Amino acid sequence: MKTQEFAPPSGQEPAEPGRALKVRVWRGADEGGFATYEVPWRDNQTVLDVVTEIQRRIEPDLAYRFSCRVGVCGTCAMTVNGKPRWTCRTHVSRVERDGVIQLEPLRNMPRIKDLVVDMTEFFDKWLKAGGRFVGKTTRKERPVAVDPASKERKLADAAIECINCGICYAACDVVEWNKDYLGPAALNRAWSLVNDVRHADIRGVLKQATADGGCNSCHTQGSCMTHCPVGLSPTGSIAGLKKRSLLELFRRD
């Protein structure tokens, strides 16, 4: 166990006298193990606060990602006590168990070092699902009019808040055993484009999203929906893709 006494970071509450939090942190890549650290236990302490405290005061070579610290960027996502979470929005009081928390990198992506994963395959699949927007107009033309009250716009709105943090991908059991599966974030993006009247290649998106490893590989377990930090339903988006692809098939026939 590694421990050290220090003053609280600027803006944080002082530690409660005699109270310490034990943090088990994965160190290494695929080959590695847990190291246990002891840090002061403070009121209103987030998991990201704890990781930052360990890195700045005890273990300077601890690798992790963060940026905004306020739940906008999603880069601080980790596995906390077995569940994927944004660590900047997760208070220690919600997840500690008998004064202990355990931190690991996100599942289903290659580990680089400690709490950092390689998200290349995640973003590659996002593109493979047809996630790149293609406009119908040029810069010299008037933009396509979007009716905010239309059914299509409301369906798109329900999916567009995704920030690609990777939590749904890490939570997906299908991704774990089927590496060809595009995953919930990629298919959620496809659904937003299918319902975007400005998009020029809706049929192309449907073709990519329903190919091998696409929406029909989903087993509708709902883990993506359960763990999404912003309350999106990739499960619903995937169901929409399945239904839309069938309708397109009947129309062609």
From TrEMBL:
GO terms for molecular function: 2 iron, 2 sulfur cluster binding; 3 iron, 4 sulfur cluster binding; 4 iron, 4 sulfur cluster binding; electron transfer activity; metal ion binding; succinate dehydrogenase (quinone) activity. Its cofactor is [4Fe-4S] cluster; [2Fe-2S] cluster; [3Fe-4S] cluster. Binds 1 [4Fe-4S] cluster. Gene3D superfamilies: 3.10.20.30, Alpha-helical ferredoxin. Keywords: 2Fe-2S, 3Fe-4S, 4Fe-4S, Iron, Iron-sulfur, Metal-binding, Oxidoreductase. PANTHER family: SUCCINATE DEHYDROGENASE [UBIQUINONE] IRON-SULFUR SUBUNIT, MITOCHONDRIAL, SUCCINATE DEHYDROGENASE IRON-SULFUR PROTEIN. This is Succinate dehydrogenase iron-sulfur subunit.
